[in-house]
Structure formats: structure tokens, C-alpha cells
Amino acid sequence: MSSTQPHQPPRQAQDRHHDQGHSQQDGQHHDMSSGLNAMAASATLHCLTGCAIGEILGLLLGTAWGLSNAGTVVLAIALAFVFGYSLSTLPLLRAGLGLFAALSVVLAADTLSIATMELVDNVVMGLIPGAMEAGLADVVFWIGMLIALTAAFAAAYPVNRYLLQRGKGHALTHEYHSAAAPTGWRRHVPAFSTGALAAAIIAFLLGGLTVAAADGLSTAATGPGPDVEHGLGVESAGS
Fold this sequence. Notes:
By secondary structure, the protein is an all-alpha fold. The protein contains 7 helices and no strands. It has one domain (about 35-180, about 185-220).
């Protein structure tokens, strides 16, 4: 009486099946990682847009009102939080949340990201020689803003990725982004595309840099103004 041995698949087939399983797992892990990276980049860009609007408006108002550097910085930071929170609140209002409920979600989702951006942005601006004292007509101001905002994005991106990975930060707002179309008065709540806002901010910064550079070249080409020339003449006469 002979015993029947169970059929064993060839070793090569087993290895191929094992490799396919690992490939599928690696592919799923790569897709999840790519999706997380994209969400973190989008969340960071969203916060950066609001911060940039507040920062630029604060610096414009601080200069126009003749505030000190410290006063202008405080105003810019305050407006950065206001606009950062506002841009995140509008979609939640369209999704059906009440104002206070939307604000509570936004405060939990955005505060750490905005705080990180503001800290890095102001530190970088302070480290760039002449950036804090520069006026809106100075090239160094606009170059400093571009560098500072870029550094702020780089600093806040890993923060947002860490929070998203743990179901916090902007993950708290994502469930409302797929809500049904708004009805009633909520239809009139503006819906701004983050990409469009970011493009507008970049265009504004580059436009300010271009105008400042053109003004500097024009001043260099025409020479010092009459007040400067008069002062130089008096100094020469006195010597």
C-alpha cells in the first residue's frame, strides 16, 4: 500500500508568489506615502497662502501707519493667523458647519502649522541683513519675503505630514471636503482654490520685486535727488 504525498508547488513558483506579494505591499505602501506627501504639501501650501496674505498686508499697513519694526511684526503675525484661519473656515461653512463649530475645527487643525510658519518666517527675515528695516521700495524686502516664505513652507511641511499621519492637523477638515453641494446662503460663501491663491501671492511678490528693482535702477540712472546734491554741496563748501 503506497502513501500519496501531497502535491508541493515548485520552489520557483513559491518564490515568484512571495515576490509578487512583497511587490504588492511595496506598491500599496508607496501609494499611501505618495498620497500622504501630497496631502501634506497641499495643507502646507494652504496655510502658507493665508500667512503670506496676512504678512504682506501687515507689512503694508505697518509701513503706511508708520509703526515701529516691533509693531509691524506683531500686526503682520496677527493678520497671518486671521487670514490663515479664515481661508480654512470658509470651506467648512460651505460644507454645513456653523461658525463656532468650524472655528473649533480650524483652531485644532491649523494652529501648530501657522505658528511654525510665523516663527520661521520672522526668524529668517531677522537674519537677512536689512530686511526688517527695508521699505516696500527696496529689493531686499521682497527677496527677503520670498526666502522667508520658502523657509516657512519647508519648516511646516514635516509638521503637517506628522499630524496627518496621526489623524490630526488638516486630517480633521478632510471629512468635510467631500460634503454635498452647499445650499441656501452657504452657496454664497466664497470658495478659493489654494493653487489660484498661491499663484496670486507669488505673482504679487514677483511684481513687488520687479517694481522695486526698476525703481532702484531708475534712481541709480538719474543720480541723487536735489536734496542729496544740495547736502553734498553744502558739505563740500564747508570743507
